[in-house]
Amino acid sequence: MKRKIVSALLVMSMAASLVACGNSGSGSSDPADESVSVSSSASSESDASASASSESEAEAEESEMPEGYDETSTELYNEALGDFNDALATAKEAETVDERYALMAVAEGKLMESAMMYPLISKGGMYAMYRMAPHTKDYTLWGSDTDRYHQYVVTTDFIKAEDYNEMRAKWDELKGTGTYESWVKEYLAGKGYTLKDSFSMPYSSDPVTWDGLATSRAADNDAIINTYDGLMEYDVEGTLQPALAESYEVSDDGLTYTFHLRKDVKWTDSQGREVDTVKADDFVAGMQHMCDAQGGLEYLVQGVIKNVSQYISGEITDFDEVGVKAVDDYTVEYTLEEPCSYFETMLGYTIFMPMSRSYYQSQGGKFGAEYDSSAADYQYGKDSNSIAYCGPYLVTNATAKNTIVFKLSDSYWNKDNVNIKTLTWLYNDQSDVTKMYTDAKAGTVDYVNLNTSTMETAKSEGLYDQYAVVSDTDATSYMGFYNINRTATANANDGTTAKTTKSDEEIQRTNKALQNVHFRRAISFAADRGAYNAQQVGEDLKYTSLRNTFTPGYFVSLSKDTTIQINGTDTTFPAGTYYGEIVQKQIDADGVKIKVWDAENKTSDGFDGWYNPENAVEELNTAIEELAEEGITIDESNPIQIEYPYPSAVEVYTNKANSYKKSVEAALGGKVVINLVDAVDMDGWYYAGYYVNYGYEQNYDVYDVSGWSPDFGDPCSYLDTMLPDYEGYMTKCFGIF
């Protein structure tokens, strides 16, 4: 059955500059570290009518589902990912958290062996120049809090590299003490820097909606999160702190979480006029609206909060039976289906945001069976003037493909502790590879990630040696995807863009080839990811941000000695063993030639454990033999044609596409041809896959746009995106579901 699923995938940081962010295994850091955009999503106009139009157009653009599509999707999924899915299901039955982590690592190993996708990079690992002090915005590996900018400490001039790195080291020392931010301010003052209370950054995609509970698009949520506070929030040192909840307690059986709210928090409109007081019922309203809207994030609490799944399926219709209650005006209670080890790590995500029930209803909003976002009187979230605010900022300007301005709200309960009074996003379409550098030098934006072009300029102008630092990496994983069931021959929104040059017969030959695991491995092993990444970050940093798994190998570790079975053999992993080490153990046991874990440095990043032309040829020869039995001949005269879309308007992505083509074709001796398909610009590139909702709309054979950033602190935040039957966000990238 066809279901509405809107992508929440984080697109690869787009820029004429470089991707960046995070802290090599300990959390995301600066948005600065994200090249031009905060993330990506469908563009839209900022006014109500245009936003509504964009949403309706997106619906209209969905093409018809091919006959037998669900059955084909199931069959192909089971063939390619059945072992992974079985292993993941086993992990979820684990009796302890450590056993769960270890068994999920086994599932990750099966996922990597399937080669349905190949890892590319994380955010970060590039040269950058900053006016923001490191680690002075909310810090965590997961959720949305890393997109909150109110605590940034920003200077009027670029920060010298030696000073930036000294602050980094001090953060490692002070992390968890609650003193780092104040130390940074004193340190910068002592070094002669002048602090300012504004922060400006580039962005590349406008929000489609301002309703944070009805969307799973990153570009929507990245903006919306600055307009509200949640129950809890990670601080700049990565400690979960009270926000709208002053305190909370957990029942002895781990099933009930009770939060006690602040009593001085106001809802306002975009003009700052008070519309209500934040109360416990607003968290109930928010959860019900999310379940009604089904914007793509509701799966995160299905099976976690009591009866959410039953409410969404229609098995129950009374939301009072769902496990979220307003005990009184300032006490909200969540009841879980079963104890959840990662529940607290979910609290910083949009799924737990409050929504003013009274304001929502004043905008035509209804609940339950009466919910209808297409109703003539429904205005909630259509633009930034049709939501209620309870966070640090009010949106005072939202001009599409131009500017978004956030101003500190006079009514914000914690306004005296906010460092950034004005947050400005400036649109950058990435067509000019030097714009971000020019803007950063002029102070128009407060950072720049240096690409191969601007790096040389910075060197010649004497800025590089003084200010350039290597940005940290984070938990975001960008992947390349193989479409094993391609039916699209042009972009869904525009039949003239990214049109295939292949015949129907050639499309089917490619599908058959990509359905073969050895063929997928052959292409994966043939791709020189270091050379590919060098087109963006330069030769000397080409390995720094490379990732070799989907879930970072450092994401979790075992707290106790844990014994699981690896291919039927009891295997004990001592306390302290990292997730990635267990992934490697499973891959080695299965005899697949992939290195995903560097045991010496305890990381899954910073090396290329996939690229190996010799292994690529070996896998290709096996694939050729197996496919010959199906009547498919592969040789130099009959190569498999692989189509790879790219935006010719953006130089860096053109260079990366050509690098990919060169290495794959060279390694596979002319038996595989990479056809670069010009999607013209970023919109065309996104509509080839990222902007569409279903597998049958994916217009590519190989695609390198999408990635994933975890929603909470458990490996299933990554792995569940690969579930079948429309449950996994990213499964559609394979051309199925």
Briefly, what is this?
This protein has 737 residues and is of the alpha+beta class. It has 20 helices and 26 strands.
Structure keywords:
737 residues; alpha+beta; D-Maltodextrin-Binding Protein, domain 2; Dipeptide-binding Protein, domain 3; 2 domains; five-stranded antiparallel beta sheet; four-stranded mixed beta sheet; 15% strand
SSE topology:
Layout: E1 10-11, H1 48-61, H2 69-92, H3 97-114, E2 117-119, E3 127-130, E4 154-155, H4 161-174, H5 180-190, E5 195-196, E6 198-203, H6 218-224, E7 232-234, E8 240-242, E9 245-250, E10 256-261, E11 266-268, E12 274-277, H7 280-293, H8 308-313, E13 324-328, E14 331-335, H9 357-362, E15 393-399, E16 403-408, E17 422-427, H10 435-442, E18 447-449, H11 452-460, H12 464-467, E19 469-470, E20 477-482, H13 504-514, H14 517-526, H15 529-537, E21 562-566, E22 569-573, H16 579-589, H17 613-628, E23 640-646, H18 651-667, E24 672-678, H19 682-687, E25 702-703, E26 706-708, H20 716-719
Parallel strand pairs: 6-17, 23-24
Antiparallel strand pairs: 1-26, 2-20, 3-18, 3-19, 4-5, 7-8, 9-10, 10-14, 11-12, 13-14, 15-16, 16-17, 20-25, 20-26, 21-22
